[in-house]
Amino acid sequence: MKWLFWLWFTLCFLLLVYSFFKEISLSNILSGMLLVGMGLLAFDLEKATKIKKSILKKFRK
After folding, report:
1. What distances in angstroms separate CA 8 from CA 36, 53, 54, 60, one per listed residue?
2. pLDDT digit string (tens) for 21-30?
3. pLDDT greater than 70 at residue 58
4. Could you list the residue range(s) of the whole structural domain that residue 55 is in?
5. CA 51 from chain center: how many Å?
6. Could you say which DSSP state residue 23 is in?
7. How many domains, the chain?
8. Beta carbons of 15 and 29 less than 8 angstroms apart
């Protein structure tokens, strides 16, 4: 889960740097950060669910 935080932090930092050059409004930056964070969390939860199901299948046999 630590790598997920650092990936989100890096993407948000790159978005902020990009916004300084392209003059994007602050609300667009914040919504972008929120969408990136939610997307990464959803990906991580999906991956964790698959791992959990595979472990449960091994123990049920």
Report:
1. 7, 26, 27, 36
2. 777 677 777 7
3. yes
4. 2-60
5. 18
6. T
7. 1
8. yes
Q: Which residues fall within 8 angstroms of residue 36, CB to CB, at 6 or more apart?
A: 8, 11, 12, 15
Task: Determine the Cα–Cα distance for residues 25 and 36; give it in Å rounded to an integer.
Answer: 17
Question: CB–CB of 39/8 below 8 Å?
Answer: no
- Which residue type, as a one-letter code, is found at position 15? L
Q: Which two tokens stand for residue 39?
A: 């997307």
Cβ-contact 8, 40 below 8 angstroms: yes
Query: Does residue 9 register a pLDDT over 70?
Result: yes
CB atoms within 10 A of CB 11: 16
